Amino acid sequence: MNTRTSLSVSGLDDVCFADTRLSDVDGEKGRLVIAGRDVESPGDRTSFESFATALWNAGSPLSPARLADVSAQIAAGRMAAFEQLETMASALALTNGMAAVRSALSMLDETFEDPARITGAAAVFAAAWARRRAGLPAVAPDPTLGHSADLLRMLRGAPATVAEAEGLDAYLRTVSDHGMNASTFTARVVASTAADLRCAVAAAMGALEGPLHGGAPGPVLDMLDAIRSEDRAATWLEAELAAGRRIMGMGHRIYRVRDPRAAVFERAIEALANAGHRTERLALARAVERAAEGVLRARHPSRPLHANVEFYTAVLLDTLGVDRGAFTVLFATGRIAGWCAHVHEQRAHGRLVRPASRYVGDRAPSNENGDRAPSNENGDRAPSA
Ligand code: COA
After folding, report:
1. Is 310 noted as a catalytic residue in this protein?
2. Annotation marks residue 300 as catalytic
3. Cβ-count burial of 354 within 10 angstroms (0-12 exposed, 13-18 middle, 19+ buried)?
4. How far apart, in whole angstroms, are the C-alpha atoms of residue 325 and residue 291?
5. Mind listing the pLDDT tens digit for each residue in 188-229?
6. Which of 178, 252, 306, 342 is catalytic?
7. Which CATH number is 269's domain given?
8. Which of the residues 13, 52, 93, 222 could staple to 337 if both were Cys, CB 3.0 to 4.6 A apart?
């Protein structure tokens, strides 16, 4: 390994990779538009299916008939995936939920090369994995229910109330797409090689799993549990920073203000509180957010670091009775709508993604005939790549 030259790797900040009709993230104003809809004001009771249909039909008007058709296809995907649960048993036995669901999705046949069917399948596998982990049998889907109501039912083994289904709808539609984030970029890179949708989705799930992307909400809940009360927040957070750790749920590559999705989730939690749910963690989360902004401002005065999507995801999914071990898997069941839409857009308009890198390693000296000399004493040459 060459240790003489330090290697720099860009995070592709500000590199515009694609024109898209799918979503727009305005990091200065804190605004997110998905397929023409502002996530902060999508209209009451807008379903996940409605956002998925809009993403999969971006650029075309959304008709009630098309929405009904897509909803039926997602439900059919749930039913068909449930039929295959036995075949997926070894995948769904994996301890890591993201590994389990992406393995099961990879095992699906080509009848799932369809956004709606693979979206339905992801929900079934997520719920079956979570129940297996809790030592419980899988619950069969009900195609007459909306996707969120059925996902909650499959997770918990009991019907969801209208308020709960609306709470999960708010979550899934709000995370359904988010510009050229790491997992979406991954899906597009895979799609650009002409690989199939299942490959792109499985690869995107791998990217989503990391704590810098979709793996943060479980740790956010752990943080709230560790802090326990508002008065302990600043001291606890400062100790985390002093130990060289990041505050989970805070900071974002694009947003320089609070992530607009945080407000959507706060409203969804308040609606659940009005419907009789226990939401004590909301007050603590708000206090911890204020304290985290303060300690981060003191440490990084020139870098605005505010709550991101994961902060209130943790509280919302916890209020809905979802186990923290399944938070990232739930994120994937929503984001899959965006991944599928990006795969379609990439196939329709994109080229093979093949960026460049700058070689800063050793080069074998050339002799006077222009031939390269062996690069080491064994006569080996560096591979030509
Ligand atoms: N806690 C503590 N410090 C943070 C921080 C956080 N949550 N987020 C950023 N910083 C600091 C970094 O340490 C860095 O400091 P330095 O310049 O002294 O090294 C500075 O702010 C800039 O960070 P950088 O890593 O360049 O920002 P980024 O755009 O690459 O990071 C995240 C974005 C999301 C990866 C980052 O904010 C983070 O790690 N957040 C916590 C994990 C999380 O919530 N993930 C979910 C994302 S939706």
Report:
1. yes
2. no
3. exposed
4. 26
5. 999 999 999 999 999 999 999 998 999 888 999 999 999 999
6. 252
7. 1.10.230.10
8. 52
